[in-house]
Write a structure and sequence with these properties.
About 25% of the residues lie in helices and about 40% in strands. By secondary structure, the protein is of the alpha+beta class.
């Protein structure tokens, strides 16, 4: 079984300013707007990170799940870990493991050539865990949530190259890691005080929440090709934390030089 991180979704109070910050700091550009999120009272925009994606959603109606999440975590932040399974059978196996562990399915769509399964963030504690499948089965190409392959001419890796890790936080990182490992069907390992779960292309790291925001998707590691460019832009936008970290849209972005 192979599970690939394809998309991270952030939630923001105001979409345009969040997208502008992400474009300017990380040297990436918007590639797709999905009108389908309107059924959830949201607007969104996607930007490619290498051959994968960063999405931001923002509520435009009252009493949305995203709006409640903003209230619970006191502002913008990480929202969804969206993955691609290498087969429909493996996607359905993740779905079944969620149910077997008392975790609800929040929303799903079963189509002939593309399936979506969103696993409930309240039960997964730190974020939505979405597991999707499409018949093209290309981890570097076709991706229905980004409109197929129309995004390819928007890929620019001169500044930001790709994802390296996702950081999920909570008051009980051990329990959090065990839960995500059981649902994903992947082993959890320990490196010192930090627990890890390896997806096909990134590490998922489970840490104790120390920022006062409780459970959540608190950080992302990015492979970068132009650290100086990112840091300069971050300083202009009050997003600079250190030479290794910037804070955009309520998320800690750690910078790792691409080899």
């Amino acid at each position: 079984m192979t599970i690939q991180l394809r998309q991270i979704c952030l939630v923001a109070c105001e979409l345009d300013s969040a997208i502008d910050d992400l474009e300017q700091v990380f040297g990436i550009q918007r590639c797709f707007v999905d009108p389908g999120v309107g059924q959830f009272g949201l607007v969104n925009t996607l930007l490619p990170i290498g051959r994968n994606f960063l999405e931001v959603v923002a509520p435009v109606e009252a009493n949305t799940a995203a709006g409640r999440y903003l209230d619970r975590r006191n502002g913008d932040g990480g929202y969804m870990v969206i993955c691609q399974a290498d087969s429909s059978a493996n996607q359905q196996a993740v779905r079944q493991r969620a149910l077997d562990n008392g975790v609800r399915i929040a929303w799903e769509v079963d189509r002939e050539n593309f399936n979506i399964c969103q696993i409930h963030p309240g039960d997964m504690k730190a974020a939505f865990f979405e597991i999707d499948w499409d018949e093209v089965n290309d981890f570097n190409g076709n991706w229905h949530p980004a409109g197929g392959v129309q995004w390819e001419d928007k890929v620019d890796q001169s500044v930001t190259v790709d994802y390296a890790a996702v950081e999920l936080q909570g008051p009980d990182p051990v329990g959090l890691a065990e839960l995500w490992g059981k649902v994903a069907g992947l082993p959890v390992s320990r490196d010192g005080a930090t627990l890890h779960m390896a997806l096909n292309n990134v590490d998922v790291r489970f840490v104790e929440a120390t920022d006062g925001r409780g459970y959540g998707l608190g950080g992302l590691d990015l492979k970068v090709a132009d650290r100086d460019r990112i840091l300069a832009a971050a300083k202009q936008r009050d997003a600079y934390v250190s030479d290794d970290e910037v804070d955009v849209c309520g998320v800690r972005f750690r910078l790792i030089d691409a080899g």
